[in-house]
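Input structure tokens:
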């Protein structure tokens, strides 16, 4: 308690304190400072508040002086008064950006209602002390002429710990206003805490985005029948849970900018891949701006923000060693004399502050105007709160400046525009904050229009899968529907209708037999969510059924007798306008013989990616794929029976928007469902490896490539840990029922055998060494067990087919793979040793790679990357723009077995395998970029030479931004100087033909072979 600085009030302050409670009263000049803090004074204060308000709503639009409450404060104040004087007030939320006067608005509300006894909860100790001092004198309300000058200040209580005695409680209840944190309340004796809540008439919550924490929830439940007013700048939380309470006022950032509450933001971008160099550059730029502002007469202070104490310690050394004249100070929870240092910061004795996160919620230091972001905030909510501390305006201060390294910032998608080159932070912050807040408000409007029957199901608890069946209906109105036909034995538990939407939610229950006793009397309840959504524009009825048990035809027909389920080929129109569609699986029906097995393959847009794929007597049963739609990554599946789905869960509002989009596609006459997939591969279950085919490559399981960054998957050998992209998986030998392979890392080699038996498989370790894979929970599993139990490696064969687990993905019987066409060859005059493949770290000019790179550098490529080595996509990856296309080219190099060119099949097995492994990257530009960036970062941070042959590291970002707007075209090259085109043999032509077909099916383009 002694740490609280009240010296500015001491001459007029009456105070009493117990162990965890301090109460204080600040008398006016006209009142004695020896007041008895008792119930009479409490009542006297309460009476002085009646009619004390001296502002009217008109003042919000007719402010004659700067010395008055500003427009957002007045508007919020009268919104609160209107809400609290309503016969059915309930919880309310006021949204005001940081720096627009939330605290003064709260003070004015408590006085003008007036409030008998207010409990004010804030999230942090520093904000608790700051708020307590504000209430002692009613802040600036008198200065701003918001209240009559004779309005008495409240007796204010400060709870600094858990109340444990009746004496402490009695002391706290002698106050008009009680200020505390949820942590202090949580420590209190439960019975005493309950009595405290009972004696408080109103609950005010500052920084309400913390309201969903368990402690906050317990507090709010005690105020169910009392007014609760929540203030926040961001009505959404990091954990995505909702903030309860009716939105009664929202002051947008755009208006705050227009009215001068916020100063315009300057943003300085640093682009540096090396972490330590980046910190030094950020510090240099930030200090330069600070000195410039100081010389202009602005008493600004620089804050260097870090994520961790360890990082803050490192960054502090940079400022201490180079800018000691500006008296830098380090502050975080572990530094000695922290409170003393905080007071020195408040006293403005330091021009540079290095801290972790921020100096606490509500910390008010307007001179903070230079922000060096050594680590950035990852979420929207915290970014908005943080930025608000720097951008509030004051006449004697200048504009704020933010400095950050924009290289490789891993943030929420919504924040990415802040960390690109030359962003306008003023526009971006406005756009992203207002769109998110508006989404919360619209969702609440929907909830308020709901009419519920039966069990009360909170709408914000509904997180539904994106799935539906669709009916064409004639003259239907869900709002007039009174009964719904359910399945036999299905019980209606709850029905929710909406006055302003053709939407109905049904919660049902049905008893189902247990699987372990299907003939017995053992049943378990299954709870089902059914959502019906009618669009009058398209005359379509969408039905979501969480049980996926059928089409709900009876339910549809009770709403519209002529309801017709949309099914068959037309359902596949849903895939229309999806860019770069990659089919993940395709279920097909083959005539009367039943469905084919699912098959997985990758590609870009379907027409070019599945070029000349073999035809079979089959028709579509169900398809599922991923791609891009309106610039966003999407997944979509649909069945000829009518079901449409996505691998995503979402809110009711977003499900309705998704249905609207699906409906437009189904009605679009320009979309041809038969252009989606007309040719298919087949899957066979096998007990032996294919006879007569040569395995040419082995690769990691497909799902390891899901995120495009193999460096995120870790392996362990003994005490050494390494990432998957540092290891190499290689074929060694094969028999009819086993394939031997090795995994190499540096000089370590572990051998395995992939064995087929009885339409099953197992992967065995055949050496003494053991490799473990690190799971998501950081546990370790032997790699051969992981392969055997979850997913096998993938083996590619000379005809372009592949085997994984115990399945062989093949073409229809009788299909003849054509030999490679002569137009696929490019002749090149080689004057170097064709037995030397890689240029190495010395950039050997007598190597195949060096010569090819030299050629490419003369051909106007944006970016050329040397990806040679374990975990490569290709030996060389090159990018350039040509005729409005972004060309992504993969070059696979192979040395010749002999010094003279000829036509040797052994020169091609391995490189053809590399090409086929490469094809999984086609259509995955973002993943390609992520992979290459990770490999370059690792090189640079190990102080090794760069892999970038042409361009620079920031070219990756240009590729993502500019390349994202262009249509993509992928090309794959084999470079084998050991082939003399004039001597091409049938076996080499056949192998290259199979590889070329695989490439054409994946990219829509022919394989190109650069030879001699």
């Amino acid at each position: 308690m002694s740490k609280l600085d009240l010296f500015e009030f001491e001459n007029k302050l009456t105070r009493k304190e117990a162990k965890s409670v301090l109460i204080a009263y600040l008398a006016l000049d006209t009142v004695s400072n020896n007041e008895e803090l008792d119930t009479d004074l409490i009542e006297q204060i309460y009476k002085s508040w009646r009619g004390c308000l001296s502002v009217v709503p008109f003042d919000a639009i007719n402010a004659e002086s700067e010395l008055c409450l500003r427009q957002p404060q007045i508007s919020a104040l009268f919104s609160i008064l209107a809400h609290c004087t309503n016969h059915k007030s309930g919880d309310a939320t006021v949204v005001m950006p940081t720096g627009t006067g939330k605290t003064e608005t709260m003070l004015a509300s408590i006085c003008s209602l007036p409030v008998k006894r207010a409990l004010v909860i804030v999230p942090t100790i520093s904000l608790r002390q700051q708020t307590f001092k504000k209430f002692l004198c009613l802040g600036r309300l008198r200065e701003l002429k918001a209240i009559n000058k004779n309005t008495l200040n409240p007796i204010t209580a400060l709870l600094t710990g858990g109340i444990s005695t009746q004496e402490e409680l009695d002391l706290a209840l002698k106050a008009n206003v009680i200020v505390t944190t949820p942590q202090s309340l949580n420590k209190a004796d439960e019975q005493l805490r309950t009595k405290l809540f009972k004696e408080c008439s109103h609950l005010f919550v500052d920084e309400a985005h913390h309201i969903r924490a368990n402690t906050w929830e317990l507090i709010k439940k005690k105020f169910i029948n009392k007014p609760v007013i929540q203030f926040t700048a961001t009505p959404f939380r990091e954990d995505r849970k909702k903030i309860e309470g009716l939105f009664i006022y929202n002051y947008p950032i755009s208006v705050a900018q227009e009215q001068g509450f916020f100063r315009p933001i300057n943003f300085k971008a640093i682009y540096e891949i090396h972490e330590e160099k980046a910190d030094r550059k950020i510090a240099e730029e930030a200090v330069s701006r600070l000195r410039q502002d100081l010389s202009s007469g602005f008493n600004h202070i620089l804050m260097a923000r870090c994520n961790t104490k360890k990082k803050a310690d490192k960054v502090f050394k940079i400022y201490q060693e180079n800018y000691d004249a500006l008296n830098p100070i380090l502050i975080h929870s572990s530094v000695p004399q922290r409170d003393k240092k905080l007071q020195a910061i408040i006293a403005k004795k330091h021009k540079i502050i290095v801290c972790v996160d921020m100096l606490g919620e509500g910390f008010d230091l307007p001179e903070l105007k230079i922000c060096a972001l050594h680590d950035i905030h990852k979420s929207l909510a915290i970014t908005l709160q943080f930025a608000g501390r720097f951008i509030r305006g004051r006449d004697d201060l200048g504009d704020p400046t933010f400095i950050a390294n924009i290289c490789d910032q891993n943030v929420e998608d919504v924040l990415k525009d802040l960390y690109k080159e030359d962003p306008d932070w003023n526009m971006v912050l406005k756009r992203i904050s207002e769109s998110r807040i508006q989404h919360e408000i619209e969702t609440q409007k929907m909830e308020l229009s709901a009419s519920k029957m039966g069990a009360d199901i909170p709408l914000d608890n509904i997180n539904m899968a994106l799935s539906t069946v669709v009916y064409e209906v004639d003259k239907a109105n869900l709002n007039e529907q009174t009964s719904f036909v359910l399945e036999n034995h299905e019980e209606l538990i709850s029905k929710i209708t909406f006055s302003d939407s053709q939407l109905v939610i049904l919660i049902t229950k049905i008893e189902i037999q247990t699987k372990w006793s299907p003939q017995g009397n053992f049943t378990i309840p299954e709870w089902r969510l059914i959502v019906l959504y009618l669009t009058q524009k398209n005359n379509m009825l969408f039905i979501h059924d969480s049980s996926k048990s059928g089409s709900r035809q009876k339910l549809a027909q009770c709403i519209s007798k002529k309801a017709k389920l949309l099914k068959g080929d037309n359902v596949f129109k849903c895939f229309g306008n999806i860019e770069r569609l990659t089919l993940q699986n395709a279920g097909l029906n083959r005539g009367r013989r039943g469905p084919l097995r699912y098959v997985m393959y990758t590609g870009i847009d379907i027409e070019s990616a599945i070029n000349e794929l073999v035809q079979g007597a089959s028709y579509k049963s169900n398809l599922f794929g991923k791609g891009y739609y309106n610039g966003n990554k999407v997944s979509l599946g649909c069945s000829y029976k009518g079901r449409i789905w996505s691998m995503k869960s979402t809110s009711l509002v977003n499900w309705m928007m998704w249905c609207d989009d699906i409906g437009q596609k189904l009605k679009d006459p320009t979309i041809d469902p038969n252009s989606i997939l007309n040719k298919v591969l087949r899957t066979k279950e096998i007990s032996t490896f294919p006879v007569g085919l040569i395995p040419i490559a082995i690769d990691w399981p497909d799902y390891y490539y899901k995120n495009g960054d193999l460096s995120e998957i870790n392996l362990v050998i003994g005490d050494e840990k390494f990432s998957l992209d540092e290891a190499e998986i290689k074929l060694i030998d094969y028999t009819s029922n086993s394939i031997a392979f090795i995994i190499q890392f540096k000089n370590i080699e572990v051998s395995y055998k992939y064995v087929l038996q009885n339409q099953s498989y197992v992967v065995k370790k055949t050496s003494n060494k053991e490799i473990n894979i690190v799971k998501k929970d950081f546990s370790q599993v032997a790699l051969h067990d992981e392969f055997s139990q979850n997913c096998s490696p993938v083996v590619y064969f000379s005809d372009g087919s592949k085997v994984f687990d115990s399945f062989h993905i093949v073409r229809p019987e009788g299909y003849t793979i054509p030999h490679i066409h002569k137009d696929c060859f490019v002749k090149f005059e080689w004057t170097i040793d064709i037995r030397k493949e890689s240029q190495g770290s010395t950039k050997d000019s007598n190597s195949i790679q060096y010569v090819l790179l030299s050629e490419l550098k003369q051909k106007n490529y944006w970016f050329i990357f040397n990806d040679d080595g374990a975990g490569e996509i290709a030996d060389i990856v090159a990018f350039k723009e040509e005729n409005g296309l972004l060309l992504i080219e993969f070059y696979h190099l192979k040395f010749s077995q002999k010094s003279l060119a000829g036509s040797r099949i052994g020169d091609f097995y391995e490189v053809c395998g590399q090409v086929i492994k490469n094809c999984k990257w086609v259509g995955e530009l973002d993943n390609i970029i992520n992979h290459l960036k990770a490999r370059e970062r690792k090189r640079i941070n190990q102080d090794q030479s760069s892999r970038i042959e042409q361009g620079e590291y920031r070219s990756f970002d240009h590729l993502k931004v500019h390349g994202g707007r262009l249509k993509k075209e992928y090309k794959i090259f084999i470079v084998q100087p050991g082939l003399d085109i004039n001597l091409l043999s049938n076996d080499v032509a056949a192998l290259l033909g199979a590889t070329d077909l695989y490439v054409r099916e994946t990219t829509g383009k022919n394989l190109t072979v650069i030879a001699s």
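Confidence is low (pLDDT under 50) at residues 590-619. Residues 425-448 form the longest helix (24 residues).
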